[in-house]
Amino acid sequence: MSRTAHNPEATRRALLESAAAQIHRLGFQATSLDAILAETGVSKGALYHHFATKRELGLAVVDEVYRTPFLDDWRAGLNQGGDPLTDLLVLLRRKRDQASLCTVQHGCPLNNLAQELAGLDEEFRRRIEAVMRDWRLLIQDALERARQAGLLRPGVDPAREAAFVVAVVEGATGTAKTAQDPQLFADTLATLEEHLLALRLRSA
Amino acid sequence: MSRTAHNPEATRRALLESAAAQIHRLGFQATSLDAILAETGVSKGALYHHFATKRELGLAVVDEVYRTPFLDDWRAGLNQGGDPLTDLLVLLRRKRDQASLCTVQHGCPLNNLAQELAGLDEEFRRRIEAVMRDWRLLIQDALERARQAGLLRPGVDPAREAAFVVAVVEGATGTAKTAQDPQLFADTLATLEEHLLALRLRSA
DNA sequence: GAAAACATACCGAACGGTCGGTTTGGAGTC
DNA sequence: GACTCCAAACCGACCGTTCGGTATGTTTTC
Questions:
Q1: Which residues touch strand D (CB under 7 A)?
Q2: Which end of chain B is less packed: N or C, by CB atoms within 10 Å?
Q3: Which residue of B has its CA nearest to A106?
Q4: In chain B, what are the domain boundaries?
Q5: Burial degree of A53 (CB within 10 A; 0-12, 13-18, 19+)
Q6: Is B32 on the interface with A (CB under 8 A)?
Protein backbone atom coordinates (compact mmCIF):
# COMPACT_ATOMS: atom_id res chain seq x y z
CA MET A 1 0.00 0.00 0.00
CA SER A 2 2.46 2.66 1.31
CA ARG A 3 1.24 5.45 -0.89
CA THR A 4 3.46 8.52 -0.62
CA ALA A 5 2.83 12.05 -1.76
CA HIS A 6 2.65 12.72 -5.46
CA ASN A 7 2.38 9.21 -6.66
CA PRO A 8 -0.70 9.62 -8.80
CA GLU A 9 -0.79 6.09 -10.17
CA ALA A 10 -0.67 4.61 -6.68
CA THR A 11 -3.32 6.99 -5.40
CA ARG A 12 -5.62 6.21 -8.27
CA ARG A 13 -5.06 2.50 -7.87
CA ALA A 14 -5.65 2.62 -4.12
CA LEU A 15 -8.97 4.38 -4.70
CA LEU A 16 -10.00 1.82 -7.31
CA GLU A 17 -9.09 -1.15 -5.11
CA SER A 18 -10.83 0.22 -2.05
CA ALA A 19 -13.91 1.17 -4.04
CA ALA A 20 -13.96 -2.26 -5.67
CA ALA A 21 -13.85 -4.02 -2.32
CA GLN A 22 -16.55 -1.87 -0.75
CA ILE A 23 -18.80 -2.04 -3.78
CA HIS A 24 -18.42 -5.80 -3.71
CA ARG A 25 -19.45 -5.92 -0.05
CA LEU A 26 -22.18 -3.29 0.04
CA GLY A 27 -23.18 -2.56 -3.53
CA PHE A 28 -22.66 0.72 -5.36
CA GLN A 29 -25.32 2.88 -3.77
CA ALA A 30 -24.53 1.85 -0.21
CA THR A 31 -20.83 2.53 -0.71
CA SER A 32 -19.94 6.00 0.53
CA LEU A 33 -17.03 8.03 -0.72
CA ASP A 34 -16.15 8.97 2.84
CA ALA A 35 -15.63 5.31 3.71
CA ILE A 36 -13.30 4.93 0.73
CA LEU A 37 -11.38 8.01 1.79
CA ALA A 38 -11.14 6.75 5.35
CA GLU A 39 -9.81 3.38 4.23
CA THR A 40 -7.25 4.77 1.82
CA GLY A 41 -6.28 7.91 3.69
CA VAL A 42 -6.79 9.87 0.50
CA SER A 43 -8.41 13.29 0.69
CA LYS A 44 -11.62 14.26 -1.02
CA GLY A 45 -9.77 16.71 -3.23
CA ALA A 46 -7.48 13.96 -4.43
CA LEU A 47 -10.37 11.67 -5.20
CA TYR A 48 -12.14 14.32 -7.23
CA HIS A 49 -8.88 15.07 -8.95
CA HIS A 50 -8.79 11.52 -10.34
CA PHE A 51 -12.51 10.88 -10.84
CA ALA A 52 -15.13 13.39 -11.88
CA THR A 53 -18.02 11.70 -10.05
CA LYS A 54 -18.78 8.69 -7.91
CA ARG A 55 -20.34 7.17 -11.00
CA GLU A 56 -17.09 7.53 -12.97
CA LEU A 57 -15.25 5.84 -10.15
CA GLY A 58 -17.74 2.98 -10.24
CA LEU A 59 -17.48 2.59 -14.00
CA ALA A 60 -13.69 2.58 -13.74
CA VAL A 61 -13.92 -0.17 -11.11
CA VAL A 62 -15.84 -2.34 -13.54
CA ASP A 63 -13.37 -1.80 -16.36
CA GLU A 64 -10.11 -1.67 -14.44
CA VAL A 65 -10.60 -3.94 -11.44
CA TYR A 66 -13.35 -6.44 -12.09
CA ARG A 67 -13.08 -7.04 -15.79
CA THR A 68 -9.52 -8.07 -16.60
CA PRO A 69 -8.71 -10.54 -13.80
CA PHE A 70 -12.08 -12.19 -14.23
CA LEU A 71 -11.73 -12.74 -17.96
CA ASP A 72 -8.07 -13.69 -17.65
CA ASP A 73 -8.94 -16.35 -15.10
CA TRP A 74 -11.48 -17.94 -17.40
CA ARG A 75 -9.32 -17.50 -20.49
CA ALA A 76 -6.42 -19.24 -18.81
CA GLY A 77 -8.64 -22.02 -17.49
CA LEU A 78 -10.08 -22.69 -20.93
CA ASN A 79 -6.67 -22.85 -22.59
CA GLN A 80 -4.90 -25.38 -20.44
CA GLY A 81 -4.02 -27.44 -23.47
CA GLY A 82 -6.25 -30.40 -22.75
CA ASP A 83 -9.30 -30.88 -24.92
CA PRO A 84 -11.51 -27.81 -24.46
CA LEU A 85 -14.41 -29.63 -22.85
CA THR A 86 -12.12 -31.20 -20.27
CA ASP A 87 -10.49 -27.83 -19.59
CA LEU A 88 -13.92 -26.37 -18.93
CA LEU A 89 -14.88 -29.21 -16.62
CA VAL A 90 -11.62 -28.92 -14.69
CA LEU A 91 -12.15 -25.19 -14.32
CA LEU A 92 -15.66 -25.66 -13.00
CA ARG A 93 -14.41 -28.38 -10.69
CA ARG A 94 -11.81 -25.98 -9.32
CA LYS A 95 -14.43 -23.27 -8.76
CA ARG A 96 -16.59 -25.82 -6.99
CA ASP A 97 -13.84 -27.04 -4.71
CA GLN A 98 -12.85 -23.50 -3.80
CA ALA A 99 -16.36 -22.59 -2.69
CA SER A 100 -16.28 -21.52 0.94
CA LEU A 101 -18.56 -19.44 3.12
CA CYS A 102 -16.20 -16.56 2.52
CA THR A 103 -16.39 -16.90 -1.27
CA VAL A 104 -20.13 -17.28 -1.25
CA GLN A 105 -20.83 -14.47 1.20
CA HIS A 106 -20.72 -11.52 -1.16
CA GLY A 107 -21.39 -13.24 -4.45
CA CYS A 108 -20.05 -12.27 -7.86
CA PRO A 109 -19.13 -8.57 -8.04
CA LEU A 110 -20.32 -8.23 -11.60
CA ASN A 111 -23.60 -10.00 -11.01
CA ASN A 112 -24.26 -7.94 -7.89
CA LEU A 113 -23.67 -4.71 -9.74
CA ALA A 114 -25.66 -5.82 -12.73
CA GLN A 115 -28.71 -6.70 -10.67
CA GLU A 116 -28.47 -3.51 -8.63
CA LEU A 117 -27.90 -1.05 -11.44
CA ALA A 118 -29.20 -2.57 -14.68
CA GLY A 119 -32.48 -0.72 -14.29
CA LEU A 120 -30.97 2.49 -12.96
CA ASP A 121 -28.04 3.32 -15.20
CA GLU A 122 -27.79 2.23 -18.79
CA GLU A 123 -24.05 2.86 -19.02
CA PHE A 124 -23.33 0.61 -16.06
CA ARG A 125 -25.50 -2.06 -17.63
CA ARG A 126 -23.63 -1.82 -20.92
CA ARG A 127 -20.20 -2.06 -19.36
CA ILE A 128 -21.14 -5.07 -17.25
CA GLU A 129 -22.92 -6.72 -20.15
CA ALA A 130 -19.75 -6.26 -22.22
CA VAL A 131 -17.83 -8.35 -19.68
CA MET A 132 -20.56 -10.97 -19.56
CA ARG A 133 -20.60 -11.12 -23.32
CA ASP A 134 -16.86 -11.67 -23.53
CA TRP A 135 -17.17 -14.33 -20.86
CA ARG A 136 -19.85 -16.12 -22.86
CA LEU A 137 -17.71 -15.86 -25.98
CA LEU A 138 -14.73 -17.45 -24.23
CA ILE A 139 -16.84 -20.45 -23.30
CA GLN A 140 -18.53 -20.53 -26.69
CA ASP A 141 -15.13 -20.54 -28.36
CA ALA A 142 -13.96 -23.45 -26.19
CA LEU A 143 -17.08 -25.43 -27.03
CA GLU A 144 -16.69 -24.58 -30.68
CA ARG A 145 -13.16 -25.95 -30.62
CA ALA A 146 -14.45 -29.07 -28.91
CA ARG A 147 -17.10 -29.44 -31.58
CA GLN A 148 -14.64 -29.08 -34.43
CA ALA A 149 -12.44 -31.67 -32.76
CA GLY A 150 -15.38 -34.04 -32.97
CA LEU A 151 -15.79 -34.29 -29.21
CA LEU A 152 -19.42 -33.21 -28.99
CA ARG A 153 -22.67 -34.96 -29.75
CA PRO A 154 -24.26 -33.67 -32.93
CA GLY A 155 -26.90 -31.03 -32.32
CA VAL A 156 -25.03 -29.32 -29.48
CA ASP A 157 -25.11 -25.55 -29.98
CA PRO A 158 -21.95 -23.94 -28.54
CA ALA A 159 -23.55 -20.51 -28.18
CA ARG A 160 -26.58 -21.84 -26.37
CA GLU A 161 -24.53 -24.05 -24.08
CA ALA A 162 -22.20 -21.15 -23.30
CA ALA A 163 -25.17 -19.00 -22.32
CA PHE A 164 -26.36 -21.88 -20.16
CA VAL A 165 -23.03 -22.20 -18.37
CA VAL A 166 -22.94 -18.49 -17.63
CA ALA A 167 -26.52 -18.48 -16.37
CA VAL A 168 -25.93 -21.48 -14.12
CA VAL A 169 -22.74 -20.08 -12.61
CA GLU A 170 -24.41 -16.74 -11.95
CA GLY A 171 -27.52 -18.46 -10.62
CA ALA A 172 -25.46 -20.73 -8.39
CA THR A 173 -23.53 -17.77 -7.01
CA GLY A 174 -26.69 -15.77 -6.42
CA THR A 175 -28.74 -18.48 -4.76
CA ALA A 176 -25.80 -19.51 -2.58
CA LYS A 177 -25.30 -15.90 -1.54
CA THR A 178 -28.96 -15.51 -0.65
CA ALA A 179 -28.93 -18.74 1.33
CA GLN A 180 -25.41 -18.13 2.70
CA ASP A 181 -24.75 -21.76 1.89
CA PRO A 182 -21.63 -22.90 0.02
CA GLN A 183 -23.11 -26.38 -0.41
CA LEU A 184 -25.84 -24.95 -2.61
CA PHE A 185 -23.16 -23.51 -4.88
CA ALA A 186 -21.20 -26.75 -4.98
CA ASP A 187 -24.25 -28.90 -5.69
CA THR A 188 -25.42 -26.66 -8.50
CA LEU A 189 -22.00 -26.59 -10.15
CA ALA A 190 -21.74 -30.38 -9.81
CA THR A 191 -25.04 -30.76 -11.63
CA LEU A 192 -23.78 -28.43 -14.34
CA GLU A 193 -20.69 -30.58 -14.73
CA GLU A 194 -22.86 -33.67 -15.20
CA HIS A 195 -24.85 -31.82 -17.83
CA LEU A 196 -21.69 -30.88 -19.72
CA LEU A 197 -20.31 -34.38 -19.43
CA ALA A 198 -23.40 -35.59 -21.23
CA LEU A 199 -22.58 -33.37 -24.22
CA ARG A 200 -19.53 -35.48 -24.99
CA LEU A 201 -19.79 -37.88 -27.88
CA ARG A 202 -19.91 -41.42 -26.49
CA SER A 203 -17.32 -42.69 -28.96
CA ALA A 204 -14.88 -39.88 -28.12
CA MET B 1 -58.34 1.47 -6.23
CA SER B 2 -60.69 4.36 -5.25
CA ARG B 3 -59.38 4.83 -1.75
CA THR B 4 -61.65 6.98 0.36
CA ALA B 5 -61.04 8.43 3.76
CA HIS B 6 -60.76 6.04 6.66
CA ASN B 7 -60.41 2.86 4.70
CA PRO B 8 -57.27 1.58 6.35
CA GLU B 9 -57.09 -1.73 4.54
CA ALA B 10 -57.28 -0.05 1.14
CA THR B 11 -54.72 2.55 2.12
CA ARG B 12 -52.30 -0.05 3.38
CA ARG B 13 -52.78 -2.17 0.30
CA ALA B 14 -52.29 0.77 -2.05
CA LEU B 15 -49.01 1.59 -0.34
CA LEU B 16 -47.84 -2.02 -0.57
CA GLU B 17 -48.71 -2.32 -4.25
CA SER B 18 -47.09 0.96 -5.20
CA ALA B 19 -44.01 0.18 -3.17
CA ALA B 20 -43.79 -3.30 -4.70
CA ALA B 21 -43.91 -1.91 -8.22
CA GLN B 22 -41.32 0.78 -7.59
CA ILE B 23 -39.00 -1.56 -5.71
CA HIS B 24 -39.25 -3.98 -8.62
CA ARG B 25 -38.30 -1.24 -11.08
CA LEU B 26 -35.67 0.65 -9.11
CA GLY B 27 -34.61 -1.54 -6.21
CA PHE B 28 -35.20 -0.81 -2.55
CA GLN B 29 -32.63 1.90 -1.93
CA ALA B 30 -33.47 3.88 -5.04
CA THR B 31 -37.18 3.86 -4.24
CA SER B 32 -38.22 7.04 -2.44
CA LEU B 33 -41.14 7.31 -0.11
CA ASP B 34 -42.15 10.59 -1.73
CA ALA B 35 -42.59 8.81 -5.05
CA ILE B 36 -44.84 6.23 -3.44
CA LEU B 37 -46.87 8.98 -1.79
CA ALA B 38 -47.15 10.84 -5.08
CA GLU B 39 -48.38 7.75 -6.89
CA THR B 40 -50.91 6.73 -4.27
CA GLY B 41 -52.03 10.16 -3.07
CA VAL B 42 -51.47 9.01 0.50
CA SER B 43 -49.96 11.46 2.97
CA LYS B 44 -46.67 10.94 4.72
CA GLY B 45 -48.36 10.74 8.07
CA ALA B 46 -50.68 8.03 6.85
CA LEU B 47 -47.76 6.01 5.55
CA TYR B 48 -45.99 6.24 8.89
CA HIS B 49 -49.22 5.30 10.59
CA HIS B 50 -49.22 1.97 8.76
CA PHE B 51 -45.49 1.28 8.63
CA ALA B 52 -42.93 2.20 11.25
CA THR B 53 -40.06 2.66 8.78
CA LYS B 54 -39.25 2.35 5.12
CA ARG B 55 -37.59 -0.94 5.99
CA GLU B 56 -40.80 -2.31 7.53
CA LEU B 57 -42.66 -1.35 4.38
CA GLY B 58 -40.09 -3.20 2.29
CA LEU B 59 -40.26 -6.31 4.46
CA ALA B 60 -44.04 -6.26 4.23
CA VAL B 61 -43.79 -6.06 0.44
CA VAL B 62 -41.75 -9.26 0.40
CA ASP B 63 -44.19 -11.14 2.61
CA GLU B 64 -47.49 -9.70 1.42
CA VAL B 65 -46.98 -8.89 -2.25
CA TYR B 66 -44.12 -10.90 -3.69
CA ARG B 67 -44.30 -14.13 -1.73
CA THR B 68 -47.79 -15.54 -2.05
CA PRO B 69 -48.58 -15.08 -5.75
CA PHE B 70 -45.14 -16.35 -6.68
CA LEU B 71 -45.39 -19.56 -4.66
CA ASP B 72 -49.02 -20.07 -5.65
CA ASP B 73 -48.10 -19.86 -9.31
CA TRP B 74 -45.45 -22.55 -8.98
CA ARG B 75 -47.57 -24.68 -6.67
CA ALA B 76 -50.43 -24.64 -9.14
CA GLY B 77 -48.14 -25.39 -12.07
CA LEU B 78 -46.61 -28.38 -10.30
CA ASN B 79 -49.98 -29.87 -9.42
CA GLN B 80 -51.69 -29.95 -12.76
CA GLY B 81 -52.46 -33.65 -12.38
CA GLY B 82 -50.11 -34.95 -15.03
CA ASP B 83 -47.00 -36.77 -13.94
CA PRO B 84 -44.92 -34.35 -11.87
CA LEU B 85 -41.98 -34.21 -14.25
CA THR B 86 -44.24 -33.35 -17.16
CA ASP B 87 -46.01 -30.72 -15.09
CA LEU B 88 -42.66 -29.13 -14.34
CA LEU B 89 -41.63 -29.19 -17.99
CA VAL B 90 -44.93 -27.68 -19.09
CA LEU B 91 -44.55 -24.93 -16.49
CA LEU B 92 -41.04 -24.10 -17.65
CA ARG B 93 -42.23 -24.18 -21.24
CA ARG B 94 -44.94 -21.68 -20.35
CA LYS B 95 -42.45 -19.39 -18.62
CA ARG B 96 -40.21 -19.62 -21.67
CA ASP B 97 -42.95 -18.80 -24.14
CA GLN B 98 -44.09 -15.85 -22.06
CA ALA B 99 -40.64 -14.28 -22.03
CA SER B 100 -40.84 -10.82 -23.58
CA LEU B 101 -38.68 -7.74 -23.39
CA CYS B 102 -41.11 -6.40 -20.84
CA THR B 103 -40.86 -9.48 -18.65
CA VAL B 104 -37.10 -9.58 -18.88
CA GLN B 105 -36.57 -5.86 -18.35
CA HIS B 106 -36.75 -5.71 -14.58
CA GLY B 107 -35.98 -9.31 -13.72
CA CYS B 108 -37.29 -11.29 -10.79
CA PRO B 109 -38.34 -9.05 -7.89
CA LEU B 110 -37.09 -11.47 -5.27
CA ASN B 111 -33.77 -12.06 -6.95
CA ASN B 112 -33.25 -8.33 -7.42
CA LEU B 113 -33.92 -7.64 -3.76
CA ALA B 114 -31.83 -10.56 -2.63
CA GLN B 115 -28.79 -9.46 -4.60
CA GLU B 116 -29.19 -5.85 -3.53
CA LEU B 117 -29.80 -6.39 0.17
CA ALA B 118 -28.40 -9.78 1.16
CA GLY B 119 -25.20 -8.18 2.34
CA LEU B 120 -26.82 -5.11 3.87
CA ASP B 121 -29.73 -6.37 5.93
CA GLU B 122 -29.87 -9.81 7.46
CA GLU B 123 -33.62 -9.70 8.04
CA PHE B 124 -34.31 -8.96 4.38
CA ARG B 125 -32.03 -11.81 3.41
CA ARG B 126 -33.84 -14.22 5.74
CA ARG B 127 -37.29 -13.32 4.47
CA ILE B 128 -36.28 -13.66 0.83
CA GLU B 129 -34.40 -16.87 1.50
CA ALA B 130 -37.54 -18.24 3.15
CA VAL B 131 -39.43 -17.77 -0.11
CA MET B 132 -36.62 -19.28 -2.15
CA ARG B 133 -36.50 -22.23 0.21
CA ASP B 134 -40.22 -22.89 -0.14
CA TRP B 135 -39.85 -22.58 -3.89
CA ARG B 136 -37.07 -25.18 -3.89
CA LEU B 137 -39.16 -27.46 -1.71
CA LEU B 138 -42.11 -27.27 -4.10
CA ILE B 139 -39.89 -28.45 -6.94
CA GLN B 140 -38.16 -31.01 -4.77
CA ASP B 141 -41.52 -32.40 -3.76
CA ALA B 142 -42.61 -32.72 -7.38
CA LEU B 143 -39.40 -34.52 -8.30
CA GLU B 144 -39.75 -36.77 -5.27
CA ARG B 145 -43.23 -37.74 -6.42
CA ALA B 146 -41.84 -38.42 -9.87
CA ARG B 147 -39.14 -40.58 -8.37
CA GLN B 148 -41.56 -42.60 -6.30
CA ALA B 149 -43.69 -43.11 -9.39
CA GLY B 150 -40.64 -44.71 -10.98
CA LEU B 151 -40.29 -42.00 -13.63
CA LEU B 152 -36.72 -41.00 -12.89
CA ARG B 153 -33.40 -42.60 -13.65
CA PRO B 154 -31.80 -44.10 -10.57
CA GLY B 155 -29.28 -41.81 -8.91
CA VAL B 156 -31.26 -38.61 -9.52
CA ASP B 157 -31.34 -36.55 -6.33
CA PRO B 158 -34.57 -34.52 -6.10
CA ALA B 159 -33.10 -31.94 -3.70
CA ARG B 160 -30.05 -31.32 -5.84
CA GLU B 161 -32.05 -31.10 -9.05
CA ALA B 162 -34.51 -28.72 -7.39
CA ALA B 163 -31.63 -26.46 -6.36
CA PHE B 164 -30.38 -26.66 -9.92
CA VAL B 165 -33.72 -25.64 -11.39
CA VAL B 166 -33.98 -22.65 -9.07
CA ALA B 167 -30.41 -21.57 -9.82
CA VAL B 168 -30.93 -21.85 -13.58
CA VAL B 169 -34.20 -19.92 -13.55
CA GLU B 170 -32.65 -17.16 -11.43
CA GLY B 171 -29.52 -17.17 -13.54
CA ALA B 172 -31.53 -17.03 -16.75
CA THR B 173 -33.60 -14.13 -15.46
CA GLY B 174 -30.52 -12.27 -14.27
CA THR B 175 -28.41 -12.70 -17.38
CA ALA B 176 -31.34 -11.83 -19.62
CA LYS B 177 -32.00 -8.70 -17.56
CA THR B 178 -28.37 -7.65 -17.82
CA ALA B 179 -28.33 -8.26 -21.55
CA GLN B 180 -31.88 -6.95 -22.04
CA ASP B 181 -32.39 -9.96 -24.27
CA PRO B 182 -35.43 -12.23 -23.96
CA GLN B 183 -33.81 -14.76 -26.29
CA LEU B 184 -31.09 -15.41 -23.72
CA PHE B 185 -33.77 -16.28 -21.20
CA ALA B 186 -35.61 -18.55 -23.60
CA ASP B 187 -32.46 -20.37 -24.73
CA THR B 188 -31.33 -20.98 -21.16
CA LEU B 189 -34.72 -22.31 -20.11
CA ALA B 190 -34.83 -24.54 -23.19
CA THR B 191 -31.51 -26.05 -22.24
CA LEU B 192 -32.79 -26.63 -18.73
CA GLU B 193 -35.79 -28.44 -20.16
CA GLU B 194 -33.51 -30.73 -22.14
CA HIS B 195 -31.54 -31.44 -19.00
CA LEU B 196 -34.70 -32.37 -17.10
CA LEU B 197 -35.95 -34.48 -19.97
CA ALA B 198 -32.78 -36.53 -19.67
CA LEU B 199 -33.65 -37.38 -16.07
CA ARG B 200 -36.58 -39.45 -17.22
CA LEU B 201 -36.16 -43.20 -17.17
CA ARG B 202 -35.93 -44.42 -20.75
CA SER B 203 -38.41 -47.22 -20.16
CA ALA B 204 -40.98 -44.85 -18.62
C1' DG C 1 -78.99 9.09 24.70
C1' DA C 2 -75.83 12.69 25.24
C1' DA C 3 -71.54 14.04 26.64
C1' DA C 4 -67.09 12.80 27.75
C1' DA C 5 -63.13 10.06 26.90
C1' DC C 6 -60.58 7.51 24.01
C1' DA C 7 -58.81 5.15 19.69
C1' DT C 8 -57.87 5.07 15.02
C1' DA C 9 -56.73 7.19 10.65
C1' DC C 10 -54.68 10.80 8.57
C1' DC C 11 -52.31 15.42 7.48
C1' DG C 12 -48.15 18.11 6.09
C1' DA C 13 -44.61 21.24 7.52
C1' DA C 14 -40.22 21.01 9.30
C1' DC C 15 -36.04 18.76 11.03
C1' DG C 16 -31.62 16.61 10.84
C1' DG C 17 -28.23 13.77 9.09
C1' DT C 18 -25.94 11.96 5.26
C1' DC C 19 -23.33 12.32 1.27
C1' DG C 20 -21.97 13.65 -3.28
C1' DG C 21 -19.87 17.48 -4.88
C1' DT C 22 -17.25 22.28 -4.79
C1' DT C 23 -13.96 25.69 -3.54
C1' DT C 24 -9.85 27.43 -2.15
C1' DG C 25 -5.34 27.19 -1.32
C1' DG C 26 -0.85 25.05 -0.74
C1' DA C 27 3.00 21.71 -1.71
C1' DG C 28 5.89 19.42 -4.89
C1' DT C 29 7.93 18.97 -9.63
C1' DC C 30 9.44 20.23 -14.28
C1' DG D 1 6.08 29.99 -12.55
C1' DA D 2 3.04 26.87 -14.55
C1' DC D 3 1.19 22.60 -14.01
C1' DT D 4 0.06 18.36 -11.60
C1' DC D 5 -1.33 16.58 -7.43
C1' DC D 6 -3.44 16.83 -3.17
C1' DA D 7 -5.51 18.77 1.57
C1' DA D 8 -9.29 20.63 4.23
C1' DA D 9 -13.16 23.26 4.88
C1' DC D 10 -17.45 23.95 3.20
C1' DC D 11 -21.94 23.73 0.52
C1' DG D 12 -26.54 22.27 -0.44
C1' DA D 13 -29.87 19.03 -1.89
C1' DC D 14 -32.11 15.00 -0.92
C1' DC D 15 -34.80 12.00 1.95
C1' DG D 16 -36.16 9.29 5.81
C1' DT D 17 -38.18 10.55 9.90
C1' DT D 18 -40.60 13.25 13.44
C1' DC D 19 -44.28 15.62 15.43
C1' DG D 20 -47.99 18.79 16.55
C1' DG D 21 -52.29 18.74 15.01
C1' DT D 22 -57.25 17.49 12.79
C1' DA D 23 -61.02 14.42 11.77
C1' DT D 24 -63.74 10.46 12.21
C1' DG D 25 -65.42 6.63 14.75
C1' DT D 26 -66.14 3.92 19.05
C1' DT D 27 -66.60 3.05 23.87
C1' DT D 28 -67.69 4.55 28.44
C1' DT D 29 -70.23 7.00 31.88
C1' DC D 30 -73.98 9.44 33.89
A1: A 5-8, 10-12, 41-46, 48-50; B 5-6, 31-34, 44-45, 48, 52-55
A2: N
A3: B119
A4: 1-51, 59-197
A5: exposed
A6: no
Q: Specify the CATH architecture of the domain B59-197.
A: Orthogonal Bundle (1.10)
Topology adopted by domain B1-51: Arc Repressor Mutant, subunit A (1.10.10)
Let me know if the fold of B1-51 is the same as that of B59-197: no
Q: Is B157 left (phi over 0), alpha (psi -120 to 50) or beta?
A: beta
Q: How far is CA A25 from the centre of its chain?
A: 14
Predicted confidence at residue B202, as pLDDT, reads 80
Per-residue pLDDT tens, chain B, 204 aa: give them.
233 456 778 889 999 999 999 999 999 999 999 999 999 999 898 999 999 999 999 999 999 999 999 999 999 999 999 899 999 999 999 999 999 998 899 999 999 999 999 999 999 999 999 999 999 999 999 999 999 999 999 999 999 999 999 999 999 999 999 999 999 999 999 999 999 999 999 865
Which residues sit opposite A152 in a β-bridge?
A: A200
CA of B5 to C1' of C1 (A): 28
Backbone angles phi, psi at B7, to 5 degrees: -125, 75
Q: ∠ CA(B165), CA(B167), CA(B169), 5° rounding?
A: 70
How high is the pLDDT of residue B103?
86
Footprint of strand C on the protein (CB under 7 A): A 5-6, 31-34, 44-45, 48, 52-55; B 3, 5-8, 11-12, 42-46, 48-50
Q: Is residue A116 less than 8 Å (CB to CB) from chain B?
A: yes
